[in-house]
Amino acid sequence: MDHPSQRPISSLSIPTSTLAALLHAGYETVQDLDASDAEKLAQDPSIPLPASQALSSQRKTQSRAVPLTQPASAVAAPSVRRLGTRCGPLDALLGGGLPRRHVLELSGPPATPKGVIAVGIVRAFLKDSKDEEVLFLDTQNMVTASTLRRAAGKDALGRVYHHVLQTLPELVMFVHALPAFCDKHPKVALLVLSSLHFPFQATASAKLALPAKTAVLESVKQALVRLVARGVTVVVTTQLATKLLAADGSPATFDTGARAVMVPQLAPTYLPSAVSFRVLICPQERFSGCAFLFSLR
């Protein structure tokens, strides 16, 4: 695996316009970027000062995060209770499992086994706990009730709540109702949000305004903050999207694009800081690939 500083800047979660400006200015790797401060970046006419300041602040935050090759045990206290994922490489990456009262986002291209891993986490959770409950929200109908029944088994079936919704209004109402649901079901200690990107993707044809999307994601973040505070562990699955870039790094179409990069469909701003992990799954062959861990500090 390449050293994190040698990663291309296209692997960073930054606005497309900023990425295009950086590539146009000659920045290629994360190391190139870290060698410049906000003022130096802003000297390029195509990079506005607010964008350079935000980028510099983001890099300073990420520089305190866990290196991609370092287990998450470096940021989670050894005494923290952990939840196994039933995926050996992922458990190793997380330093022995997902710390309880944390948020894990699994993001990957279509057909990546994100849902399989999420169901495996449910199975491990139910086995590890004797009375705690699971709330499983599927926004794309990718994990059926029968799949969850098989994962839970007869003894734990009554401890799993399964809901399906596919529209953005339904998601907004679900988030609004979460506190009341958890008050009514105080034993819920694991929340799975499967395919969280889908309601936003399905609404794209309706031209959802950016402020509206930002507001919904902020409400999701606040809900996750409250859930973690009351002891709930959260697992989110999302999808990577393909972005086409021209030779100079500017946004392109299928006709004008020179290369394509995979980026998360949802920016990490909806994830609570200090308690969230973002894992990007990158398949290489049919049964192999690699995963990158980001810790939001």
TrEMBL record:
One of its GO terms (molecular function) is four-way junction DNA binding. GO terms for cellular component: Rad51B-Rad51C-Rad51D-XRCC2 complex; Rad51C-XRCC3 complex; replication fork. Its main location: nucleus. Keywords: ATP-binding, DNA damage, DNA repair, Nucleotide-binding, Nucleus. The keyword DNA repair applies. Residues 48-70 are annotated as: Disordered. It is found in: Nucleus. Residues 53-64 have a biased composition (Polar residues). One of its GO terms (biological process) is meiotic DNA recombinase assembly. InterPro entries: HR_Repair_Mediator, P-loop_NTPase. PANTHER family: DNA REPAIR PROTEIN RAD51 HOMOLOG 3, DNA REPAIR PROTEIN RAD51 HOMOLOG 3 RAD51C. This is DNA recombination and repair protein Rad51-like C-terminal domain-containing protein. It comes from Mycena rosella.
